[in-house]
Write a structure and sequence with these properties.
The complex is a heterodimer of chains A (224) and B (220).
Chain A (H helix, E strand, L loop, with lengths): L1 H18 L1 H20 L6 H4 L1 H17 L1 H7 L3 H7 L4 H31 L7 H26 L5 H12 L1 H15 L9 H26 L2
Helix pairs in contact in A: 1-7, 2-4, 2-7, 4-7, 4-8, 4-9, 4-10, 7-8, 7-11, 8-9, 8-10, 8-11, 10-11
Chain B lengths: L1 E12 L2 E12 L3 E6 L5 H9 L6 E6 L3 E4 L11 H11 L6 H7 L15 H13 L5 E5 L7 H16 L3 E5 L3 H7 L2 E6 L2 E7 L3 H4 L3 H6 L4
Parallel strand pairs in B: 3-7, 3-8, 5-6, 6-7
Antiparallel strand pairs in B: 1-2, 1-4, 8-9
Classes of the chains: A mainly alpha (224), B alpha/beta (220).
Chain lengths: 224, 220
């Protein structure tokens, strides 16, 4: 199963890097929003520290949707998804491969946006690099796994670009809330401890529960 | 040896019965022409056989190694011919010599070029390589002769003959009766979602392609 996931992952990454349609669109969107907000807020104010996590994770959720939306659309042209289903690739392998590819794409967007944010808003986000990396990995996985499942559900809908965020955002609120809180702590240079760790547990639990559910349900989603 | 068995299979879309109570078996090494008027349920039956949809009722057992050539060619435009075949080969449980297949469909010299640069005929030949290369037990072909150029038609006929020789089962949904009758050993005729006829190809079909529609279509 992992071998097939890896094959699907490599194929998706290769296809995206060749066209870079989703990556370019997502990165351009994220940078434009960061720049626009930098005009709206005073970088020296204390208020900006309080909304750092919120601003960043709403931005990543929005730009992430642009990326995950392409996951199954990519398979639609020439009916490639049908061929994958017929070839008896386990749906869970397909989902895992695509989620990994989406995770890489989202992390790439974040790796560009976080330094840009630090410069534009005069906030050092890299005081606790391991905590920042851990938060990004866990929250990005939440966006990637749920986004990929909902992308599979909406791929045959005409209004999929609209339906995907409508379905996805309410579901990832807990993961985003945890990521926002932890990012605010990291931006303030505070190591999460005591009651703060409940947000880490929430993020880990969210990922485990929804990954298990997604892997269990994807076969039903892909074959009607 | 049976590669597919259907028992009382029905498929409903809402209240509309696309297929009703189909019972039949496909044996290894047979070529089945799937015939029927537009809307008879041919595509739905192919989708069921391919595992793209599930029966509403009844039981359907299908061989493990199935390959489909549908209306879409089932290859990625962003990848080259070699990358496409390598990708699909790595999904197959069989070991596949991709280079030999590129040679066979005469695409070796352009194997690294992106598919966007291919002519329609080259894309069709690549799709044929993708369909046949895993030596599947069951081949499902939906209108395979439609809009093929001469080279691809000749290649398809050779590949079909080879597949039959190694005892693959072929299901051929088509409106091009003469081509299908040249190869078919059995006919599965659908009429408004019901099984009109399933049996050996009647000799009458060689001379009169509408014979089965007149003989079995009206009774249902």
């Amino acid at each position: 199963m992992l071998h097939l996931s890896w094959v699907v992952f490599l194929k998706d990454v290769r296809m995206e890097f060749r066209g870079k349609e989703a990556l370019n669109a997502s990165l351009a969107f994220a940078l434009v929003v960061l720049i626009l907000f930098s005009f709206a807020f005073d970088p020296t104010s204390e208020q900006i520290r309080e909304i750092t996590g919120g601003l960043l994770w709403i931005l990543f959720a929005f730009s992430g949707v642009l990326l995950v939306n392409r996951s199954f659309v990519r398979e639609q042209s020439n009916d490639c998804l049908d061929i994958l289903i017929v070839s008896k690739v386990p749906a869970s392998s397909l989902l895992l491969g695509k989620t990994l590819a989406n995770l890489v794409f989202i992390l790439m967007i974040e790796s560009v946006c976080l330094p840009v944010f630090s410069v534009l808003y005069n906030i050092n986000l890299f005081q606790l690099p391991l905590w920042l990396l851990g938060t990004c990995m866990l929250a990005s996985w939440a966006i990637a796994i749920l986004g990929t499942v909902f992308a599979a559900m909406t791929v045959k809908l005409r209004l999929r670009e609209l339906m995907l965020p409508v379905m996805l955002y309410p579901m990832i609120i807990p993961a985003l809330a945890a990521a926002m809180y932890l990012t605010n702590l990291v931006a303030a240079g505070k190591v999460p401890e005591g009651d703060d760790l409940i947000w880490v547990r929430l993020l880990v639990g969210f990922d485990i529960i929804f990954t298990t559910l997604a892997l269990g349900l994807i076969d039903t989603i892909l074959v009607d | 040896m049976s590669v597919l068995s259907a028992y009382q299979v029905s498929k409903f879309f809402g209240n509309f019965p696309a297929l009703r109570n189909l019972t039949f078996e496909l044996e290894a090494g047979e070529c089945i022409a799937l015939l029927g008027r537009n809307g008879a349920g041919k595509t739905t039956l192919l989708q069921l056989m391919a595992g793209l949809t599930r029966p509403t009722d009844g039981k359907l057992e299908v061989a493990r190694r199935v390959s489909l050539l549908g209306h879409g060619i089932g290859v990625y435009d962003e990848l080259s011919a070699r990358e496409n075949l390598l990708f699909f080969a790595s999904l197959s449980p069989n070991k596949i010599d991709v280079e030999a297949w590129l040679e066979r469909v005469n695409l070796k010299e352009v194997a690294n070029a992106p598919l966007r640069e291919y002519s329609r005929g080259m894309r069709q030949r690549l799709a044929l390589a993708r369909t046949f290369m895993g030596e599947p037990e069951l081949l499902l072909l939906d209108e395979p002769f439609t809009s093929l150029d001469d080279k691809a038609t000749a290649l398809l006929q050779t590949l079909l003959a080879d597949a039959l020789a190694r005892k693959s089962t072929i299901v051929l949904s088509t409106h091009q009766i003469p081509e299908a009758m040249a190869m078919a050993t059995r006919i599965l005729f659908l009429e408004r979602g019901k099984l009109g006829y399933y049996g050996p190809r009647p000799d009458e079909m060689l001379d009169d392609s509408t014979w089965i529609y007149r003989t079995y279509g009206a009774n249902l």
